[in-house]
Amino acid sequence: MKKIDKYILKSFIGPFFVSFGIALFVLVMQFLWLYIDEIAGKGVNIFIMLELIGYMSVSTFPMALPIAVLIASVMVMGNLAERYELSSMKSAGVPLIRIMAGLIFVCAGVAFFSYLCSDFIIPKSTAKFKSRLTDIRRQKPALTLEKGVFNEDFRQFVIRIGDKAKDGETISGVMIEDHTNAGKTKMNQILADSGQMYTTRDKRYFVMNLFRGTQYQEPSAQQNVRQNQKFPFVRTRFGSWTKVWDMKEFELVRSAEDKYSKQRGSLTMNELRANMDSLRNKITEGGQSAVDDITLNLRRRVEPPNLEKLPAQPHPGNVPKTPVKQSTGPVLPKQETTKSLNEYASFAETFQGQFRYNLLKEAKTLSGIAKSSVETRIAQTESRRLEWVKTGYELYIKYSFALVCFVFLFIGAPMGAIIRKGGFGYPILVSIIFFVAFIFLTILCRKLAESNVMTPFWAAMMPCISMIPVGGYLTSKAMNDAQLFRNEYLNRLIFWLSKRFQKKSTPETV
């Protein structure tokens, strides 16, 4: 390895990891903000929170790596150009591609690492993240007894305290409503002047000792007793009363991760391909089933009734029902006439008059059944098609995010050489512009794929492919030391406008 490669790689590693950490932090905070309402107030252990954030961080690696490559490459080449080191290398006969050789190998490794994360690490971390998030959602809120607030955290108990001392244990004006025997008692309420509440050392039980209080109980009427029978109202005074609650219902219960391992975001690339093949077969089978249903309804025939028992021209409301059954041949009662088909006003006139009402009624019923069956098949097929598109997009976007890590090098490095500015100012501005454009194209192409305008492959790869010409254009400009945009015409326009303005502003002399 040449000294120039070592020097550039040392300059690249630091900004890369700093940029990666900043991008990862921003992305994690963005996703965490979506779930903050479901996490806050649950009393989640700090280790559970760190575990949740760790799984979320791994899932954002494919998005953080490209922007880290973009920022770091702009910073390195911008610093070299600002200190005229890049010009010295070029004057010594070293082309820009040779200067970027070390960065090319490093970014190829970063792209391969992104591919490995997407295929092996992220599916497992996504399943674990969804499992932990579900556990937190199911967990009851942390036990907090505030003064003047009715608390219903304990199952079948409502607790209200009038005041709480600074030590957090001494309380006064306590009211407890017990609903454990709601079917046997109308009211079971406890009022106490003061008390003490605390949690045992092992955090297993919550204890509440009440002093100088009264318990009120009113039994409910039973169904098997007389209506005029009276029940006593019980009032019990006590000097001390103790209630113990089990805190097990506030503990986090871990659910199984297997039920999340079959979701789209938790599948590996091979599993996604297998799902696409399975969905494609189901779509084909659904279309064939719709055709079979239509064909089955068209083959149905009505057997002619006994003509001797029917009146000649019955009223439509009194037409007797004729038996309907499957037949292998067309045996409908047609008209025996020599008239051509062009002489009939409708298809129904080709049959005998006494059978037309039943035939039209049967045809309407069969057409309704066929239409309902076809609509159901179409909705089912469309649902499977949309799932096939989302599965395919999930598969190919993994390749796109890995490839864009390599493409962004040929955008960031030439931009740094052109703007000749280092630090975090211009590089971050330039990187945000290109990264936002890439994300915008990604969202747009995904919507087009779901609308059946683009295939999943092209929808996922088009944002990355669209960046390749930009990288080629910037690289060619940087290699030739050319300006990004020629400002000759702009300077001429400014000069002409300034001359015109000076002529108009000059006062005329008499």
List keywords for this structure.
single chain; 510 residues; alpha+beta; 3 domains; 5-stranded antiparallel sheet
Secondary structure elements and their pairing?
Elements: H1 3-34, H2 36-39, H3 46-59, H4 61-82, H5 85-91, H6 96-99, H7 101-138, E1 157-164, E2 170-178, E3 185-199, E4 205-219, E5 234-246, H8 269-298, H9 356-407, H10 409-419, H11 425-450, H12 456-479, H13 488-505
Antiparallel strand pairs: 1-2, 2-3, 3-4, 4-5
Helix pairs in contact: 1-4, 1-7, 3-7, 4-7, 4-9, 4-10, 4-11, 7-9, 8-9, 9-12, 10-11, 10-12, 11-12
If you had to describe this structure to a student in words, what would you say it looks like?
Mean pLDDT is 77; it is low at 301-331. The relative contact order is 0.10. Helix 4 (61-82) runs antiparallel to helix 11 (425-450). The chain folds into three domains: 3-139 and 394-488, no CATH class; 157-250, no CATH class; 274-387, no CATH class. It is α+β, with helices and mostly antiparallel strands and 510 residues long. The protein has helices at residues 3-34, 36-39, 46-59, 61-82, 85-91, 96-99, 101-138, 269-298, 356-407, 409-419, 425-450, 456-479, 488-505; strands at residues 157-164, 170-178, 185-199, 205-219, 234-246. The protein contains 13 helices and five strands.
CA radius of gyration is 39 Å
> What is the strand tally?
5
What coarse outline follows from CA principal-axis ratios? flat
Total helices: the number is 13
Mean pLDDT: 77
- Going across the biggest sheet, name each strand in turn: 1-2-3-4-5
End-to-end gap: 79 Å
Helix-strand topology string: HHHHHHHEEEEEHHHHHH
Structural class label: alpha+beta
Any low-confidence stretches, pLDDT <50, length ≥5? 301-331
Tell me the major beta sheet.
Answer: 5 strands, antiparallel
The percent range for helix content is 55-70%
Which percent range describes the beta-strand content?
5-15%
Total domains, how many? 3
